[in-house]
Design brief:
Elements lengths: L2 H5 L3 H29 L3 E2 L2 H9 L3 E6 L3 E7 L5 E7 L6 H7 L3 E4 L5 H31 L11 E3 L15 H15 L1 H6 L7 E5 L6 H12 L3 E5 H4 L6 H16 L2 E6 L2 H4 L11 H16 L6 E7 L17 E4 L5 H12 L10 H6 L6 H17 L7 H17 L6 H20 L6 E5 L10 E4 L10 H22 L7 H16 L19 E3 L5 E3 L5 H28 L1 H14 L1 E3 H9 L5
Helix pairs in contact: 2-5, 6-8, 10-12, 13-15, 15-16, 17-18, 17-21, 18-19, 18-20, 19-20, 20-21
Bound molecules: adenosine-5'-diphosphate and zinc ion.
The site of adenosine-5'-diphosphate has 21 residues, from helix 1, helix 8, helix 13 and helix 15.
């Protein structure tokens, strides 16, 4: 999330907290006034003391009632003080008072009526009032929507978003995929007549600040339709039952406004897999999720409502959300590479006045791993710095300072990798890619990237299988293992040390080798034996007899481990040998990767086929 999102938080929520705060403060004040009025610390004196005060002429005035006598007396320091004493059946009292010229009056207190009013009706009335205020707000939260300033959703009604696709830089693939949604929204019926399978839900997947909200807004902008937005966390609020009814209201409103786009940010707040936290079941969220699913199924696609949702953790989403007719389209909004960053900076830099010394390419190179929101911040910050210095244009030095500040801020949040790490990742991924390119059994490389994705994966080499293979030979499997070792081998060759980055590779390699040995009967020593069935605790022997795990002899187990480690060593040596033979290619590729951050299939081929030794 970024600052801008926070600013756009629906007004209703803020109003609510301000509103209730005022009432709570008022309530406390009233309570204390009530308390004060009825129990103010008056000096309690005994009746005999009271009589003494009368005889000493120190009573100024008093009020008599059947239960108390209240009044004012002069204390030893000649100060007026209020007193209270209990009323006693004293026939001489009035005479005494008259004798000392004390003005007195009588009141009747604590009748059943005053008791009722002050003891019961007022406190309870007050409690009721508080409760009413709270529930009124709550009803407001789910009931009357779109009342000015009260609306829970941010609606761009009259001001249809004037954001266009040209404002979203770099995300070309995503924009292409979303073009269909625009076509549909422009004329839902026509789109259906022409036989298009109308879209309903689009899930935008990407790290915070990559422009998912912007893209959704631009989709509405391109189609010229209203844009309703709400954040997933706003559904699941403090009051039970609000979430589901908010979903209902949201969809009712959307249908009224159609064609339109409903945008749900942070959908994981409601869409978390139900299976994942069966222990701490959250009824409220589950109800909300169920309502969302029901609403999405409930309207047919000629209505012209598109639900777009954003998340950066698609893996935690409930699978039910991703089924056909729901969020069945998923669009990845990746972190931008160096060219993407350049384009984004270009979009934002238009809004400020820059000097001749600005080199946008350089700026893009200086900001690896940053996303659109970061870059927008940097441009803004640079402009502020220049303004503070009273410059009439923003210069490179301002950008440098702004970038430094942004990076320092992100480093605290662990989101930036250092130059050294980046270099290591570049060699690591190049190692995978070169071996994958050279070995026939490995899937061809589609894309190599060192743009960090979240905290765990610093880079990745994406391989796509050419066609579905049902029969995989042992050689194919060995090649895959060798590719997995490529990263670690490259690190060892170049840096002489190995980082923790290879851990996941190692685990995957072990899994494959274990399968070669125990499941597929491909090992020379153990021979044609199926020792394990995937996911089963039973073992299948060569005679086709299923054995329990314990029935496999210790010796066989040892042999399995031995064979696994032997195959792993052979593969690792092979990976290292291949890379040593292609040391120059490794250099070229890693350096190219450091420069471009993302390399595709074509570019890899060029590098591998070019060069001196062929
Ligand atoms: P997300 O929803 O993915 O967290 P946002 O859409 O809220 O990210 O992005 C925040 C801001 O960052 C946008 O308003 C925009 O100023 C800037 N931004 C992000 N991505 C891009 C992009 N691809 N092109 C231009 N600006 C972008
Ligand atoms: Zn790796």
């Amino acid at each position: 999330m970024n600052n801008k999102d926070k600013k756009e938080a629906p007004k209703g929520i803020n109003n609510f907290s301000k509103f209730s705060l005022v009432y709570i403060v008022l309530g406390i004040l009233m309570f204390y006034m009530y308390q004060y009025y009825f129990t103010t610390q008056k000096t309690t004196i005994s009746y005999s003391q009271f009589k003494k005060l009368i005889s000493q002429n120190r009573i100024k005035k008093c009020k008599l009632s059947d239960k108390y006598i209240k009044g004012v007396y002069i204390d030893k320091n000649n100060k007026k003080k209020e007193f209270i004493t209990i009323s006693v059946n004293d026939p001489n009292l009035v005479k005494d008072l008259e004798k000392h010229n004390i003005s007195f009056s009588g009141t009747i207190t604590n009748t059943w009526l005053t008791n009722l009013i002050f003891g019961w009706i007022l406190p309870f009335g007050f409690l009721f009032f508080l409760w009413w205020m709270m529930t009124k707000k709550m009803r407001g939260a789910s009931g009357s929507l779109f009342g000015l300033g009260k609306s829970k959703f941010k609606v761009y009604l009259n001001e249809k978003p004037d954001v266009k696709f040209t404002d979203v830089a770099g995300a070309e693939e995503a924009k292409q995929e979303i073009e269909e949604v625009v076509e549909y929204l422009k004329d839902p019926q026509k789109y259906q007549r022409l036989g298009g399978r109308a879209p309903k839900g689009v899930l935008l997947v990407g790290a915070p600040g990559t422009g998912k909200t912007l893209l959704a807004k631009a989709t509405a902008g391109e189609a010229g339709t209203p844009f309703i937005s709400i954040s997933g966390s706003e559904f699941v609020e403090m009051f039970v039952g609000v979430g589901a009814s908010r979903v209902r209201d949201l969809f009712n409103e959307a249908k009224k406004l159609s064609p339109c786009i409903v945008f749900i940010d942070e959908i994981d707040a409601i869409g978390k897999s139900r299976a994942m936290n069966s222990l701490s079941s959250n009824d409220e969220r589950e109800q909300t999720l169920n309502q969302l699913l029901a609403e999405m199924d409930g309207f047919d696609s000629s209505v012209g409502v598109i639900i777009m949702a954003a998340t950066n953790r698609p893996e935690v989403l409930d699978p039910a959300l991703l089924r056909p007719g729901r969020f069945d389209r998923q669009i990845i909004v990746d972190k931008p590479d160096v060219n993407g960053r350049e384009a984004i900076i270009r979009v934002h830099i238009k809004k400020i006045k820059i000097g001749d010394d600005i080199n946008i390419k350089t700026l893009a190179q200086m900001t690896p791993g940053l996303v659109g929101a970061d870059l927008a911040n940097i441009v803004n910050e640079a402009a502020l710095l220049a303004a503070r210095e009273n410059k009439d244009a923003v210069h490179m030095e301002h950008f440098e300072e702004a970038i430094e500040r942004q990076l320092a801020g992100l480093k605290k949040k662990n989101r930036v990798i250092t130059g050294d790490e980046k270099k290591r990742v570049a060699y690591h991924e190049s190692g995978h890619a070169i071996i994958a390119h050279l070995l026939p059994g490995a899937d061809p490389v589609h894309k190599i990237s060192i743009v960090p994705r979240g905290l765990s994966a610093l880079g990745y080499t994406q391989q796509l299988p050419t066609d579905e293979k049902y029969l995989i030979t042992k050689e194919d499997m060995m090649d895959k293992v060798t590719v997995l070792f490529g990263g670690r081998a490259a690190e060892e060759i170049v840096f002489n040390t190995i980082s923790t980055g290879a851990q996941n590779d190692l685990m995957r390699a072990t899994d494959i080798v274990r399968a070669i040995v125990t499941q597929f009967g491909m090992d020379d020593k153990l021979g044609l034996v199926v020792l394990e069935k995937p996911g089963a605790t039973k073992f299948l022997t060569s005679e086709g007899i299923i054995k329990d795990k314990d029935e496999i002899s210790e010796k066989t187990k040892e042999l399995i481990d031995e064979e696994i480690s032997k195959i792993m060593q052979v593969s690792y040596k092979k990976a290292k040998d291949i890379l040593l033979q292609n040391r120059d290619k490794l250099e070229t590729l890693a350096n190219k990767l450091l420069e471009l951050e993302i390399i595709n299939e074509e570019e890899l081929k060029e590098i591998m086929e070019g060069g001196d030794d062929g």
